[in-house]
Amino acid sequence: MSADAAREEYGAGMRFVPVLALVACTAAETPPLPDDARPTDLGAVRGSVEGTSLVFRGIPFAAPPVDDLRWRAPAPAAAWTGIRDALAFGLPCVQVDEAGVVIGSEDCLTLNVWAPAALPAAPLPVLVFVHGGNNQIGCSCDGGNMPYYDGRYVAEHGPAIVVTLNYRLGPFGFLADPALADEHGATGNYALADQLAALEWVQRNIAAFGGDPRRVMLFGHSAGSVNVTALVASPRAAGLFSSAILHSGPSVVVDTGTVTRTWQAAEQTLGCTAAADRAACLRAQPASAVARVPGAVLGAPNDAQAQFYPTIDGQILAASPLATIRAGRHNHVPVLIGTTADEYSQLIDEIASGPVSDEAQYHAELQRLFGASLAAEVEAQYPAATYPSPRDALVAVVNDVMEICPTRQLSGAFAGDPDVRRFIYTHSFPGPLARYHAAHGFDILLLFHDLALVGATSANDAALADAMMQYWVAFAATGDPNAAAGLPAWPSYAPQQDNYLALDWPLATAAGARTPQCDFWDSQLL
């Protein structure tokens, strides 16, 4: 099948919401827009020409979720007259930064678009990215948290349309307090609702930017990937995207006990436990106080064990994503799913309670993480003496239990879908980052072509970055990464083989990632 035929077949049946007819019907009555502006259903926006791209920053896709709209599904944004400047990124959503300072704003539901400066002859595939940060920090903006997601290189060399977005974080995005239940009885997952609203904006508007709303690839990294996994499982997301890529974030859903501890700790901290109207009390609290409830500050002690991730709310999620996918009740779209080989090589010091420089400290960390009984079995499976250091042993444990083995499990859950493929990023950067090998997020840095940020100066770095971009854009365009010309064939996932594409240079296929260790974790926890 030709690439054009594949695109036509791939787009068939996808929900298509065209740009509002008003734009076309009133074209004769309305002065034409300047070359640096595009229409949306709320009003025209002006971007900035950068290279051969027209970049739009800070476009609102929902109303600011403030005051009575806090902890509600996103409401429609207000329309405007004239042409609105979309030249600066929107503010990050409220969070506590690494210095312990509350930054950002609740008025943060904006997105960014990288499009060709001249409308293309044929609509381009669209890549929509959901950032990571443990659902506690981060943004798709130029703030100090995540300055990496510049879509220009991918947009120009793909070519494609690239969209990045902000969503509510921490307690603003995931507080599942029964006092906040809506008319359906649902509570929590406000961040997922934000992502759905951004995808709906894309369906309504992306054609005006040169994009094809039938070919929208949703992809995320880390917590962003967890959220994308939830949307793959959500009936609310049906028709909003045509393919998905999961980078280092498999299925996660917060158990009911943790959900209860989380909202109870938040209410107590904010002084709302005994309020006659707990919802009103919570909405009246300053954002700076909400941002610091237990579990909301990354790296802070969390005696309440509060957590802010997707929950089963009966609306966006009727069951855990893993259970939904196993039952075949998910959105059946092509999926790429993978991890890096050394996810926690750079992050382990944020997880460990202290240095892990000898076997006694390694033993103590395993006891803290898993309890005495399971810790003994883990230590037998991962003896410190077989690793370069006890710290490396702990990295291997956390890599496997948090990322690599759950990803194998989720890949197997998708096994009934022939358009599912697995990858493992195994490439190392030269220079200071070489000691971390293939760490968490290094694949995303290459994909967005952030080579200078990580000191990636070799020809192999650039070659792998371009190959990944070609696979990803071909996948967005056709649902099959093998539509990328001149690259090795990427086979569908087969659970019996546990086959995957190793993202290194040169590219190669392999099978059986951490099989004994993942068999162990399957028998214990997963």
Please tell me how large the radius of gyration is. Answer: 23 Å
**Looking at CATH, which topology of the domain at 1-314 would you report?**
Rossmann fold
Q: What is the CATH architecture term of the domain at 1-314?
A: 3-Layer(aba) Sandwich
Contiguous helical run count: 16
Q: What is the beta-strand fraction? A: 15-25%
Please state the overall shape, judged from the principal axes of the Cα atoms.
globular
Mean pLDDT: 92
Strand tally is 16
**Distance separating the two termini:** 40 Å
The first-level CATH class of the domain at 1-314 is given as Alpha Beta
| Structural class based on helices, strands and sheet pairing | alpha/beta
The order of strands across the largest sheet is 3-4-8-10-9-11-12-13-14-15-16
Structure description:
- With 526 residues, the protein is an alpha/beta fold.
- It has a domain of 314 residues: Alpha/Beta hydrolase fold, catalytic domain (Rossmann fold, 3-Layer(aba) Sandwich).
- 33% of the residues lie in helices and 15% in strands.
- The chain contains 16 helices and 16 strands.
- The strands form three sheets. The protein has an eleven-stranded mixed sheet, with helices on both faces. It has a three-stranded mixed sheet with strand order 1-2-5, with no helix packed on it.
- It is globular and about 75 Å long.
